[in-house]
Every structure is written in C-alpha cells, then in structure tokens.
Amino acid sequence: MPPAEPAPPRRAATARGDAFAAVDLGASSGRVMLGRVREGRLALEEVHRFANRPVRVLGTLHWDMLGIHRGVLEGLRAVAAATGAAGPASVGIDSWGVDYGLLDADGALLGNPVHYRDTRTRNAPDEVEAVLPAADLYAHTGVQRMPINTLYQWAASRGSRQARAARRMLLVPDLVSYWLTGTCGTELTVASTTQLLDPRTGNWSAAVTEAVGLDPGLFAPLRSPGDPAGELLDDVLAETGLRGPVPVTAVGAHDTASAVAAVPARGERFAYLATGTWSLAGVELSEPVLTEESRAANFTNELGVDGTVRYLRNVMGLWLLQECLRSWAAEGTPQELDPLLRSAARAPGLRSVVDVGGSEFLQPGRMPGRIAQACARGGQPVPRDPAETARCVLDSLALAHRDAVLDARRLSGVEVEAVHLVGGGARNPLLCQLTANACGLPVVAGPVEAAAYGNLLVQARTAGAVTGPLPALRALVRDSVRLRQYDPEGDRSPWERAAARRAAGEHPTGRQRQDGRESRCA
Is 198 a catalytic residue? Predict the structure, then answer.
C-alpha cells in the first residue's frame, strides 16, 4: 500500500516567519501565491502562474498531472527566492474537485487522471441509479446529480485494468500533496464533492460505495482544514531551493471551500457566487439540507471550513465565454475580452437566453455555434456577432445565478441581504451588474483570488499568525482587499419574464441537463 502514516500533531505556532505559500490550481491555470500577515492585513502576491492544459490521448481527455507538478515546483522555487533563508511557514494546496488519480501498490500513479469533461460518464448516472435510486443516493450524500462526479467516473471505469490494479485513490489536491510530502491523506472538503461522502457524518457512505463496488480501503485517511499534511520531501527541497523542514497544512482543498472561507461578508445573511470556469452559487449552513425538494432542485451539500456546509448549485459558469474566445481565436477572428465586454454591454439585453446547464455545453469546442443552435431551437434570435454572443452568455449566466440564489434562500430558509461574488467573475463588471439586476440584490465583488486568500488564512490560523473563527478571518479579508458594490438597476420584470419563458419551453430533444434537471432554452 502507498504510505498513509498518521501526520504529526497539529502545530500551535511557527518560528519560520510570516509568509505562507498557497498552491491554487484551477481548471485552466495554476498559480502559487505568497501571503504575509502584517499589521492586521493579509498581503497577497502571485509569484508564479502556469497554464493547465488538458491532453486528449486515444480519444480520452486527461489532465497533465506531471505538467501540473512541474508548475507547482517552479512556483515553490519562486517562493524560495522571495522568502530567502526564512522560507514559508507552511504550504497549502487547493484545486477543483471530483477528479482523482489511482496509485498502485508501490504508490506510483497508474495513469494521468481523466478530465471531468471526458465523455466516459455519459450513461453512468442512469447506470448507478438502476442500483441505487436517485432519492436514496441523495439521502446518503446530498450531492447534486452531475455526470462529472467522482461516483460516476468510478462507475464508468471500475472494470478497467487501472481500477483493478489500484490500491489508493487520491483526489487532485491530495495527489499533489502526496507527491510533495510522501504522505497520503484525503481532505474533507474535496472529499465531499465526490458523491461518496455522507455530509452528516463526514465519513464515506457504505451504502454508496457498496452499490458501485468501490472498496473503501482505496481511500486515504480523512483530514480537516488545519490538520498537518506532512513535510516537503528532501528531493522537493533540493528541487525548489527551500530549506527544511517545511510543513504542508491541509486547507479547504476544494478551491470553492477556500473561496467561501474568504467571502468578506458581515454577518450571516449573504449568498455567495464563487465564479470562474464554474459558478457555485449558494449559502452557508450548519447542517445539510437533504429534502426531496432540495434534490429536485439539484442542490448539493458540500463541506466547508470549520464544520460548515456549502449548500449550493453548480452552474456552468464562464466556461461558455472562455470557449467562445478560444473558438474565435482558432477561426482567425480573435477577440480581446475588455473591448468585447464593452460591446456586449451595448447589445440588447435578454434578446436571447440559453440554459447554461444544458448538456450540449459541457464539452469543449465550437461553442459559438452551439449557442446559436440552442437559440434557434428555442425560437429566439440567433446572435449575429461576438458581442451579441457574449451578451447572450452573460445574460444567461446572470439568470442562472438568480435561480440559484433565490432557490437557495427558499430551500434553506436563510435570509439573503447581499450576494458576494468572488473569483474570476469579480473582474467582469458586466456580469456583476447583470447579476445584481437579475437577483434584485446588491452584489459585492471581490476578492478575485478568494481561493488563495482562504487557503492562506487557514494556514495562518493554524500557525498562530491569526486567530478566531470564520467571521474573524472574513474581517481580515475585508480589511485587506478593495471591494466594489453593484446595486440593482432597472425593473426586474424582464428577468422574471425570461425565467418564465425558460420554464415554459421544454428542450425539443428531451435531453437532460448536465446537472440532472431538464434542459430548457428561453
């Protein structure tokens, strides 16, 4: 079996200085951030960024894990250069969820992890639900039905040679941590994205693992944000120029868990939108919501920092716009984002709206054409140029944000007075304003690097550089970043009519949404 020895006791403080390194891995790029706590503020500096490009091999879409590992090592080398002899007090790692690597009996990776956008899981949800009905599955895990989930990935591959040879399953941030430290563990917040964990107990669901033939022995011991996760190996120290020992601290290893921990909210009456390739929209709770109404609305219960529950809906996000930009560049008509957004702001609003959760938008390639086809199927005007296509995407995304925020409020009973929009979408003023208009609530935008802030804050608190529960950490973020508020403008009735049109018009093909609800086009 790969090493899974217990980590040393949690540290109460550190003597290595005030610098902390956050490895923050996104679906399109990775970055290593250096944070310092000084005079009641957290200063953040990006010391290294690298592209994260998936690779298709023999028809299967993979993550380039060795390329990711190289980027992490280069980032830690930049940390060494920036911190000198003192070095960082610790390192923390967060990434996207659901994807995993399989290790053999010697601890070697059996193959590059398959990308969640690969088509192998197309039929897996139906196959799993033939064994464990959807209502029972939700009662055990509280996770929304999405074919990208780890559960369905495993179900689609369980008969493969790799699966039969596997002795350990590590989610992406835990795999990166293992390569840096030689210590196996599974961090709780990212484990909760798998649809294999019971959010009530914080342990793996025996009913679900048995239903799909997954040996619980494949899992490494669970650990929580703030727990020790080992120390950098000698070869990592030699490669990066860091001086040991350098501890690795478990943080909210799911990037959204770290991002939500850094939401700069005052009080509890807020919704959050963690935006990027995906938009994760919801509220923070103390207990999961496992009702049939919640399942029908396709909400998920993922675990957060300090025992919280991230009650949210996963929305496709800025992926559609990112793919449009890639398509236009490949066609020889590249678009610069800022001028495109200015043109989109002048385009007629809500002229065409698509269902951003439609399964037709999950795969990469030819996105402007697929958006046009969706509009045509719904009897809407087809966008005539990139500006109208971008406006269609952003109107549609704002409408999806509205649906998720209002549904989260209704299903959880949480009063929402403001929406905090963090992550890459905070750079997009048009998206922020449209979201405020659609929700009828003020939108507070920032920080952009929320996941890195949350990652660093958990490390700093573990080391004793900051103290207090989540409200204290959030106050530190408020004092450290510049926020911008977008107040609702105009009449909400056009958004209500758009939502009603979408609800009334079934998708002609009868296909299912990527998140399990019917695909509709306004």
Answer: no
